[in-house]
TrEMBL record:
This is AraC family transcriptional regulator, arabinose operon regulatory protein. Keywords: DNA-binding, Transcription, Transcription regulation. It holds the Pfam family HTH_18. One of its GO terms (molecular function) is sequence-specific DNA binding. It comes from Anaerocolumna xylanovorans DSM 12503. The keyword Plastid does not apply.
């Protein structure tokens, strides 16, 4: 069983925050760091960016500090009781910053862990064990999906945040200049860097996000195609239909009919 010694969610500390454990602690520490910080790595203080996870091994020097107006993180002290360490079968490195594409999902698991830790739930230990396994497997999965060059690019965290914003709000009027300006680099370098990091151009990413959102609306609503195309950021319905067919091989209406037919075949009405 994975036991949680203690944990905290969205912990905020003001200026001059410093944590120093020269000999570490006898359990593992997982941090999800949401602000800029300084971490002692290989004997030197290293600046880190937000949306970073770091896993400290047992009995390892743990030293980190805030650098801005405040420091904010989620933290968990945990260990494995009566079973081998699950970490041996995962590819989560010790004592090294990892910049994550979906920090919020991991943070939500920590929030639930904290709730259980302060509850009198009948199955508190079992729930915490399950949540820790989900958290560790999710972290491992995110690491596996990281582009190889993300480790060497200081722009990866902010570029990945932009990518998530595109998929969260595909209806916005995304342009190359607008996206480049949001990460404070030139449009030409931005396009090169985006393709290098994500193996897709920034505008193709916008198209992909819009088509995926359109597929969701087509499969879950009966709204007209014109209304749907507006919601997905298209000013011209015909342009949307052409782009959708090029990507999916079907018109939006054909896609909707095919999806509904497949659904009815799988779940026939009584």
């Amino acid at each position: 069983m994975i036991t949680v010694t203690n944990c905290g969610h969205d912990s905020r500390h003001k200026t001059n925050f410093c944590m120093l454990r020269k000999s570490g602690v006898p359990n593992y520490i997982l941090l999800l760091v949401k602000t800029e910080a300084l971490f002692e790595l290989d004997g030197a203080m290293t600046a880190t960016n937000p949306n970073m996870a770091i896993l400290f091994d047992r009995n390892t020097c743990t030293h980190y500090e805030g650098v801005a107006d405040f420091y904010n993180d989620d933290w968990i002290h945990f260990d494995f009781m009566g079973e081998p360490s699950l970490l041996k079968s995962l590819n989560i490195p010790f004592n090294r910053p990892i910049y994550l594409p979906q920090m919020n999902s991991l943070s939500n698991y920590v929030r639930l862990l904290v709730q259980e830790n302060h509850s009198d739930s009948l199955h508190r230990e079992q729930v915490q064990d399950s949540l820790m396994r989900i958290l560790l497997y999710s972290l491992d999965s995110q690491i596996a999906l990281l582009p190889a060059n993300s480790k060497s690019s200081r722009y990866y965290p902010i570029m990945n945040q932009l990518r998530m914003n595109i998929h969260n709000t595909p209806h916005k009027s995304w342009t190359v200049d607008m996206m480049a300006d949001s990460v404070h680099i030139s449009p030409s370098y931005f396009q090169h860097l985006y393709k290098e990091l994500f193996s897709i151009s920034c505008m193709q990413e916008v198209i992909l996000a819009r088509i995926e959102r359109a597929k969701f609306y087509l499969s879950t609503t009966d709204m007209p195609v014109k209304t749907l195309s507006d919601l997905c950021g298209y000013e011209n319905e015909l342009h949307f239909i052409r782009q959708f067919k090029k990507k999916e091989g079907l018109t939006p209406t054909q896609y909707r009919h095919l999806f509904k037919a497949a659904l009815e075949e799988r779940f026939p009405y009584p």
